[in-house]
Each structure stands twice: as structure tokens, then as C-alpha cells.
Automatic annotation (TrEMBL):
One of its GO terms (cellular component) is membrane. GO terms for biological process: recognition of pollen. The keyword Kinase applies. ATP binds at K303. It is found in: Membrane. It comes from Setaria viridis (Green bristlegrass). This is Protein kinase domain-containing protein. Residues 187-518 form the Protein kinase domain. It is a single-pass membrane protein.
Length: 544
């Protein structure tokens, strides 16, 4: 296999076989597919990425199993002209200093290939009579030198001579000096932010007006950032304190280890669960049993399956959640009558939990499977996010992760299906679908089965038309509902399920919107879900 393609090792040899031939006459690579088991194909997207997809019969769709290049910034011209591509940001592309987004290039719709344009026109030549308006240069650190299609090398004895040569040429936009002088003309493309200490430094030409003193302008933002950073730090400390409170209940000096985790012996857990006699449920990685600690604290003990080859039994001990999972409360044949206030607090609690995972942890955690079954409720119906079996840990220096499709159909973001490397915005999409179900008390899929209009699309359409949103929901749920909260929740849910991940809000913003601290515009009807709804409607009519 190739070291840069770990996906090659994730599929059984019965499905895919690889062969690499390298000799004096030829060098090529072959992959063989067992056609009776798997149908696959390779395709190149307009973005420049090559993707391998396989037909999944159960999903009736093409499912990606790898994509190259994995790094978005490796795609040629991905950000257009005079823009920097940075892998560790959600939007990837940003304009260089002295440039603005060129909106006719569809930046608003998540397509930055139109690039950026200058804020101020360059002065041609360095011998201008108005010396105060001579162009200047600013230092730009980049991973690799820009595309060389529009560059030339000249003889220059020093960096100053190289700079002067660029000023003397009206078409020169940047220079680089390292014993030899390189000049760039026209547009700068394929600029990538450096990773760590590696990289190069080039000098980008800007109009003189871009170098005016900004001391009076920069003081305020620095103060704002300082205040914001302090607030974030306080918030993280508070959240961490809240999360660690339950662990104090099962504190044991003998078994306590660094990090406030508690270690139990198998014999001890077998005793507190009465030999694992009372089963609470089954998860994706094992069965869960009820236990009672000597001090009366209730716990849930999960025995992990598939670990019999190891010498010790692996278990996880959780805080016991007496009201079970959210789906059992709202989707049961005799569902629990939850008021709007309780439903809204559940929705807000889940949003705060995801905000902590995405933005509060040292490393960003993408849950990958947000759904009612993975939201547990305590005695006061306060929610806790559970089942991190599919979660992905993403370092702060890398905000995207490419992985095979995971999660649950009905809550999967479009990027899972297209094979794009995912971000925390995949969880945001799932949260939006979950929020619709919390508000309506019905599964989104149930609207298909009842041959009714797809509920998320129905809500988005009603918002656009300015109709009565409350009328879409069960009258008992809406009986004492706060209409402002209902409106905010509906708008949040519709923004969360937008096709383009860049238009979806972050979970931290969602918390503020739900709490009424931020306002949000009316969302458009998601075209992705409209197509699915129309396709499902056509299929149901055809079947009938």
C-alpha cells in the first residue's frame, strides 16, 4: 500500500486487491474489484479532487471511500487570485492584506475561486513625481512559493536591488530574494499558509495608501480580543467545573488517578451491578447495566463487546440518567408529555454540549452521530450527549478530517455523501435535524411515511412566506409555548441544515441565538433537502 493512502488498508482483500508494477519498461498501479460484491468508480470533481466511491445497496447511493488530495489547499487554484488557503480554518480561503473578496466569484455561496481584488490601484513605476504615493511591500509567509507560470528570474546583487526591479515594472506584484531574484507578474495563485516553522517569505506589492499608520485603529480590536479571550477562559473553567461535579459523587481515594477519572475493579463492578442483572439497554459497542455504589449513587456500567482477546474486561462507568434516551421520551407509542419549556431546555442543553466539544475542549471533537438515541436525560430532563463510539478527535491545527461515511441516515450532512472532508459543521447539520424532531415530537422520516410534505422543508418554506409557524406543531406542545423561542428555534434548525457548511452557524453562535443574545436572518429553503423530499414523494406516489 501507499503510506499516504491509509484507506487502502481499511477494506478487506476480498473486496479490493492492489498491484504495483515497477520495472525498466513501465511503472503503473492496478486495483482489482470483486464485481460480485462491490461496484466502485473513480471520478474527478470540479474542485480538482479525485474521489473513489462505492455503491451501497442499503443506502441506494454512492458512498466515498477515499479522496485525493486530502488537503483542500492542495487543489489547484482553490482560492482564486490573491487569496491565502489555510487548512486549519472552516472557510479555508481569505484575502491577502490590501485585497477584498470578489463577490461575483460566488464567495457568498461557498465558492471562493473568483479570488480577491485590490482595494487601491498600484502606482506604476518607482520614479513617480509624487514620492508619497510610491508603492510599498509587505512580508508574507507562505508554505511554498506561488505558481511559477508568471514569474521570471533576474540578476540582482541584493534584496534592495530585487525590490527596485519589481517597482520598475508596472506588472510586478511580488518579489522573492534568496541569492537570486524572482519576480511575479499578474495574479498570485496557490498561496498556502505555512505549517509551523517551514515555509518561505515573499514581498507583496501594495499601494502606498495601504501602509498608513493604523495605531489608532488597532488598539480597540486588541482590547476586544483580550476581553473575549478572558470570557472564553472563564466559560471553559465554569463548564469544566460543571462537568466534573458528577465525578465527585463516585470519588474514591484509593482508586482516584490524575485527571479526576476513577478506576474500578471488575469484582467491584460485578457487585454494584448485582452480577450485571439489570440491563438498561444496548449501545453500538456493548450492553449497559444499572449499578448502585455503596453511598447510594446510581451508575450505568457499559461492558464493551469485542474485547475478549484481551486479558482484562473493559468497562465504562457513567452517571445514571433516570429518564433514559430522548427518543424513548418523544417517539414511544405512549410518549412522555414534554412541555415546550422542557423541549426547549433540552435543545439548548444539547447545543451547549456540542459547543463545548467543538470549541471548549483542548482538541476539537466531532461527535459524528448526533441523534435522539444519543441524548440522555437526567431526573430533571437535563440532556447529556452520549455514545462517542464514532467521534473523531481533531487537533486545533487541523480542522477537517476525511473519513468513511458514518452516523445515522436521516441525520447525515450532505458532505458525508459527497466525500468531502468533514468539519464540526457536520454535527451542526445533525443538530438541526434533531431540533426539528424535538420541536415536533415526530421523526423527520415519519412525514415521508405518512405521505406528507417533508417537515424541515415545510418549516423553512413557512418561514419564508411569513406564515404561522405555530400551526405546524402539535397544539398540545405549543399550548404554553414562548412564540419568540419557537421562532428562534425554527430559524436555527433551518440554518443548521443548509447545503453549504460555510453558511451553517457554529454551535457557540447557536447557543447565543437560542438564548436571545444574537439575532439571525430568515434562512433559505435548503435545496438539498428539497430534492430529497421531492424524490421521496415521487417514490411514494410511484409505489402507491
Amino acid at each position: 500500500m501507499f503510506t499516504g493512502m491509509p484507506e487502502m488498508a481499511s477494506y478487506p482483500k476480498a473486496l479490493l486487491k492492489y498491484e504495483f508494477v515497477d520495472n525498466d519498461q513501465e511503472s503503473y498501479f492496478i486495483y482489482h474489484i470483486n464485481e460480485t460484491i462491490l461496484t466502485a468508480m473513480f471520478l474527478m470533481e470540479v474542485s480538482g479532487q479525485v474521489k473513489g466511491v462505492a455503491w451501497l445497496e442499503s443506502a441506494q447511493d454512492w458512498v466515498p471511500f477515499f479522496a485525493v488530495p486530502k488537503a483542500q489547499c492542495s487543489v489547484y487554484f482553490v482560492c482564486g487570485s490573491f487569496a491565502m488557503c489555510t487548512e486549519n480554518t472552516f472557510t479555508f480561503c481569505s484575502c491577502l492584506r490590501g485585497f477584498n473578496k470578489q463577490y461575483e466569484g460566488n464567495w457568498l455561496y461557498g465558492n471562493p475561486r473568483g479570488g480577491c481584488t485590490r482595494k487601491a490601484k498600484l502606482q506604476c513605476g518607482a520614479n513617480s513625481s509624487r514620492n508619497t504615493e510610491i508603492d510599498g511591500f509587505y512580508t508574507l509567509s507562505i508554505a511554498n512559493l506561488p505558481d511559477k507560470a508568471s514569474t521570471s528570474s533576474i540578476v540582482a546583487a541584493s534584496a534592495d536591488a530585487c525590490k527596485q526591479a519589481c517597482l520598475n515594472n508596472c506588472s510586478c506584484v511580488a518579489y522573492f530574494y534568496d541569492d537570486s531574484c524572482s519576480l511575479w507578474y499578474g495574479d498570485l495563485i496557490n498561496l498556502v499558509s505555512p505549517d509551523g516553522s517551514t515555509g518561505h517569505v515573499i514581498y507583496v506589492r501594495l499601494a502606498a495608501s495601504e501602509f498608513f499608520s493604523g495605531s489608532t485603529k488597532t488598539g480597540k480590536p486588541l482590547a476586544v480580543w483580550a476581553l473575549t479571550g478572558g470570557a472564553i477562559l472563564i466559560a471553559i473553567i465554569v463548564i469544566a467545573g460543571v462537568l466534573l461535579v458528577p465525578m465527585k459523587k463516585i470519588y474514591n481515594k484509593r482508586n482516584k488517578i490524575e485527571g479526576c477519572l476513577v478506576v474500578f475493579s471488575f469484582r467491584y463492578l460485578r457487585t454494584v451491578t448485582k452480577n450485571f442483572s439489570e440491563i438498561l439497554g444496548r449501545g453500538s459497542f456493548g450492553s449497559v447495566y444499572k449499578g448502585i455504589l455503596p453511598d447510594g449513587t446510581l451508575v450505568a456500567v457499559k461492558k464493551l463487546d469485542g474485547l475478549s482477546q484481551e486479558q482484562s474486561m473493559k468497562m465504562l462507568v457513567y452517571e445514571y440518567m433516570p429518564n433514559g434516551s430522548l427518543d424513548r421520551n418523544i417517539f414511544a407509542s405512549t410518549p412522555v408529555e414534554l412541555s415546550w419549556n422542557v423541549r426547549f431546555q433540552i435543545a439548548l442543553g444539547v447545543a451547549k454540549g456540542l459547543s463545548y466539544l467543538h470549541e471548549g475542549c483542548r482538541s476539537c471533537i466531532i461527535h459524528c452521530d448526533i441523534k435522539p438515541e444519543n441524548v440522555l436525560l437526567d431526573a430533571s430532563f437535563k440532556p447529556k450527549i452520549a455514545d462517542f463510539g464514532l467521534a473523531k478527535l481533531v487537533g486545533r491545527d487541523f480542522s477537517r478530517v476525511l473519513t468513511t461515511m458514518r452516523g445515522t441516515v436521516g441525520y447525515l450532512a450532505p458532505e458525508w455523501i459527497s466525500g468531502t472532508a468533514i468539519t464540526p459543521k457536520a454535527d451542526v447539520f445533525s443538530y438541526g435535524m434533531l431540533l426539528f424532531e424535538i420541536m415536533s415530537g415526530k421523526r423527520n422520516s415519519a412525514w415521508h411515511q405518512q405521505k406528507m410534505e417533508f417537515f424541515p422543508v415545510l418549516v423553512a418554506t413557512r418561514l419564508q412566506e411569513g406564515g404561522d409557524i405555530k400551526a405546524l406543531f402539535d397544539s398540545e406542545i405549543m399550548q404554553d409555548a414562548n412564540l419568540h423561542e419557537v421562532g428562534r428555534a425554527c430559524k436555527v434548525a433551518c440554518w443548521c441544515i443548509q447545503d453549504d457548511e460555510n453558511t451553517r452557524p457554529a454551535m457557540g453562535e447557536i447557543v447565543q441565538i437560542l438564548e436571545g443574545l444574537l439575532d439571525i436572518d430568515l434562512p433559505p429553503v435548503p435545496s438539498y433537502l428539497q430534492v430529497l423530499a421531492d424524490r421521496s414523494k415521487f417514490s411514494s406516489y410511484e409505489a402507491s
